[in-house]
Amino acid sequence: MTMTKNVLDIKDLTINFKSEGKELSVVDGISFSIKAGETLGVVGESGCGKSVTSLSIMGLIPSPPGRVANGTIEFEGKNLLDFKEKEMRKVRGNEISMIFQEPMTSLNPVFTIGKQINEVLLLHNEMNKSAARNRSIEMLKLVGIPRPEQIYHNYPYQLSGGMRQRVMIAIGLACQPKLLIADEPTTALDVTIQAQILNLMRDLKEKTDTSIMFITHDLGVVAEMCDRVVVMYSGQVVEETDVDTLFNDPKHPYTLGLLGSIPKATEKIDRLYSIRGQVPQAGTVERGCRFADRCDKVMPRCYTEDPPLLKMKEGHQCRCWLYAEEEGGAEIDS
After folding, report:
1. Which strand ranges, in their side-by-side order, compose the sheet holding 39-43?
2. Which residues, in sequence order, are CB contacts of 285 under 8 Å at separation 6+?
3. How far is CA 110 from CA 69, 122, 172, 200, 218, in A?
4. From 80, 227, 306, 311, which residue has the greatest number of CB atoms within 10 Å?
5. pTM of whole model > 0.85?
6. Tell me, what's the pLDDT at 269?
7. Which residues have C-beta within 8 Å of that of residue 29, sequence separation ≥ 6?
8. What is the mean pLDDT of each successive set of 10 residues along the chain, which is 334 residues long?
9. SS3 assignment, position 137
C-alpha cells in the first residue's frame, strides 16, 4: 500500500483553557500529519494533551473554558476550524469517527444497541430504517459480536466491557470514515479482550483502508498497531518518528524513560524503573525544557532556553538540547 496523501494535517495548534482568570496553553504549537491508510500513535502520560488534541479535531472542545488559540486542523485540505457546527455534524461520525476511552459512558443507557448504530446511519446515509437495521447487524457481525440479531435489541448494561467496546467500534466504522480516532480504546479491558480488540481494529483497517489516530500510554500497543509515533509531553511534541526507529533508536530522554518503564520478560529485577516526578501543570514552566525537572541528562541550558524541534534524520525529529550540536540536529520549523 502506497501512503502519500495526507488525510489530516495539524499545524501549530495551540489550545488554551481559562483557569482562575488566566489562559493556560494545554496544547502548545503542535504539528503532525496522518497519511491515508496509516496508523499514527500518539503517546504520553495523562496530562500531556493527547485527548484535548483529539477533541479539537472533532470540534468538541468545551467553550468556555477552552478555545483553539492558534493553528489549523486540515482534513483533506479543508480547515476544520473554519467549519460551523452544522458543517461539523456532517463530518463527525461520517468522515471522522472517534472511539472514546470508556464505552459505558459513551453509549446511551436508555437506547438499545441497534437504535444507537441506526442513528449514525440514518443521520449520514440516505437509507430507510430497514436498510439501516440490516447494516447495523452487519456491522455487529463485522466486529465479532455473537448473536448480532439478539444483541441489536439489547441495552448497554446487558453487555460486558469488551462487547460494549466492540459496539463502539461498530458505531465508529458504520459510515466507513476516512479517519478513526481511538482514544485509549483498550484501557479498561483485560489483556485477553484487549488483544482481541487490537486484532479486530487491525483487520478492519486493512479491509476498509481507514486511517487511525491511536492515542495511548501503552508502548506495547504502539509496537503492535502503529506505523509512526508522536510522543507528547506537557502539550508539546517532543519526538516524532516511525515505530521501528522509536524502539531501536529513541532520542528524547522522555521517550527513553517511557521505554525504560516497560518490564522485560528476560530480566529479573527487584524494582521496576519509573520516571521521577510528574507532568507539570499547564503554565507552570515559563521557560526552558518542560521535562528538565525529571530528566537524567539535564544541562543548565535546559532551564533557561526553550529547546526547538530538531531534525535528526528524514522523518525523525526531537525536541532536546542534547542534539543541538550534533550532525543531523538541524532546527526545523514547528
Report:
1. 96-99, 179-183, 211-216, 39-43, 228-233, 236-242, 316-318, 310-313, 330-331
2. 234, 292
3. 37, 19, 19, 27, 33
4. 80
5. yes
6. 77
7. 12, 13, 14, 70, 71, 236, 334
8. 76 92 90 93 91 93 89 94 92 89 80 94 88 93 90 94 87 88 81 82 81 90 92 95 95 93 78 85 88 93 93 94 71 56
9. helix
Copy the grid coordinates of residue 35: 497519511
Could you give the residue ranges of the DSSP H alpha helices within 13-79?
50-57
- What's the pLDDT at 103? 65
Please, what's the b/e burial string for 74-104 (b: 16 or more CB within 10 A of its CB; e: otherwise)? Answer: bbbeeebbebeeeeeeebbbbbbbbbbbbbe
Per-residue model confidence (pLDDT) at position 181: 94
Residue 189 is placed in which grid cell? Answer: 479491558
State the Cα–Cα distance between residues 310 and 120, nearest whole angstrom.
43
Taking the C-alpha atoms of residue 174 and residue 171, their distance in angstroms, rounded to an integer, is 5
pLDDT recorded at residue 83:
93
Contact 113, 164 (CB under 8 A): no
For residue 327, the model assigns a pLDDT of 47
Residues 300 and 40: their CA atoms lie apart, in Å, by: 34
Q: Are 212 and 229 in contact (CB under 8 A)?
A: no
- Listed in order, strand segments (DSSP E) in 54-173 are 66-75, 78-79, 96-99
Which residues fall within 8 angstroms of residue 110, CB to CB, at 6 or more apart? Answer: 155
pLDDT at 332: 62
Q: What are residue 94's DSSP bridge partners? A: none
Contact 150, 158 (CB under 8 A): no
